[in-house]
Amino acid sequence: MSDLTEKQKMLKGLEYFPSDKALQQDRANAKRLCQQFNQHDIDDRKGSRKIIKSLFGQCAGAWIEPDFYCDYGYNISAGKNFYANHGLVILDAAPVTFGDNAMIAPGVLISTATHPLDPTKRNKGLETAKPITIGNSVWIGMGAKILEGVTIGDNAVIAAGAVVNRDVAANTVVAGVPAIVIKTISA
Fold first, then answer.
1. For position 42, what pLDDT does the model report?
2. Average of pLDDT values for 70-91?
3. How many Å apart are CA 91 and CA 51, to the nearest integer?
4. How many structural domains are present in the chain?
5. Active-site residue list
């Protein structure tokens, strides 16, 4: 697998060097688009949506309140009626997929990236990334953190301040650090 580029390694979930020039350029491009979006005329909603559509890999329909930040953008897919309030950060070294009608409160962090536990590898600058999947009609509360490799089922609610480090079943409410189920939602 040594013939793979660092981007290919990243997208396959293998250890990769985020310091790679091509990945640095991809992140710089995403940051330019985020900057354009964050500074865009608030009355030009159509222009703001156009920037998000050019940033995301797929976007069926989204409204995001500025400020918004991401690492690459092309690994983000948003379903219909996606809404994110101020201060959303998505570290999308692996795919981040949102279903339809996902709602994100202010100050949420979603991170696919992680570093090796082995200090020798970590000190070399290696990183890995695992996809995050967020189902339909999910509500993520203010200040929540969603960590790498997590799948959140349809209709789930993530309470404010929760740290989600494992999968969340559909129709449940999770809260705490780490997040645990505190309630089942009857549909």
1. 86
2. 97
3. 18
4. 1
5. 115
